[in-house]
Design goal:
single chain, 117 residues, alpha+beta, Nuclear Transport Factor 2, Chain: A, 7-stranded mixed beta sheet, 3 helices, 32% helix, SnoaL-like
Length: 117
């Protein structure tokens, strides 16, 4: 079974940092449950297609920016948590936050993103 630490890493690097739509959608199908629910301060979406559209929109807001982990993985049971930062490669971050996932049957079933103030 895939661990929540591995799923968080793949989500960050291969989904939220992936500019190629087709590659991103392939990983979304591998990492996320079909009926995934993603909630951030601006929206709640359900399903892989709506998640993919939300990620595409987020990437368009900061072209060239990358997400990097900003601390260790933490988790218990089916939950995983990791802080992250967003900014230009090698530059100062412009945004930070924390992702919380719930894993069901080896895939991310729920994803909550909280932004730092």
């Amino acid at each position: 079974m895939t661990t929540s630490a591995v799923l968080l890493d793949r989500m960050l690097q291969e989904v939220f940092n992936e500019p190629d739509t087709a590659r991103r959608e392939t990983v979304i199908a591998e990492v996320f449950a079909e009926d995934v629910v993603f909630t951030d301060p601006e929206r709640t979406v359900s399903g892989r297609a709506d998640l993919a559209a939300a990620v595409t929109g987020l990437l368009a807001q900061g072209p060239g920016f990358v997400f990097t982990p900003a601390g260790p993985f933490r988790g218990v049971g089916s939950l995983g948590i990791r802080a992250w930062q967003l900014g230009p490669p090698g530059g100062e971050p412009v945004l930070g936050g924390t992702d919380v996932i719930e894993v069901v049957d080896g895939r991310i079933a729920k994803l909550w993103t909280m932004l730092d103030s």
